[in-house]
Amino acid sequence: MKALTLIQPWASLIVDDRKKTETRSWGTKYRGPLLIHAGAKINSVVCREAGYDVLAIPIRALLCIVELVDCFRFTGEQETDGLEDRRWGDFSPGRWGWRLRVLHRFERPIEARGSLGLWECSLREVTEFWGTGEAQCLRGF
Predict the structure, then answer these.
(1) Phi/psi class of residue 113: alpha, beta or left (left: φ > 0; alpha: ψ in -120 to 50)?
(2) pTM for this structure?
């Protein structure tokens, strides 16, 4: 399954449905399910602004499955889902917006190594970590 690594707290903001548009300097033609991975880095200033505890926020872990619904380039005319969403990204003209919809939040973070760009996450590794419980959600993907 494809995965995307984000610096914290942006990964948690997606899980908590406070960030519905991920902004990137690059676009993708991929559409479909996507694992959201919290990388090892934390922006402590933004973390506190967002109301997260820097010492408790998950890192190096898969947090949820989203659907990548759309990917589009900003022209300066697009609207986001609200002020809060705009607060958590760089919506400058020329950048890309990845519209996300949360499909499943994991009961607990799943330890995993991340990577740059879109990367393939081995479902076997994920299901071995989970056992048979929550792994059932992946059958439809």
Answers:
(1) beta
(2) 0.86
Domain span including residue 38: 2-140
Structure tokens at 25: 């300097």
Q: What is the CATH number of the domain that holds 50?
A: 2.30.130.30
Which one, of 98, 99, 121, 100, lies nearest residue 111 by Cα?
121
Q: What are phi and psi of 125, to 5 degrees?
A: -65, -40
Tens-place pLDDT, residues 6-46: 999 999 999 999 999 999 999 999 999 999 999 999 999 99
Neighbours of 63 (CB within 10 A): 24
Number of domains in the chain: 1
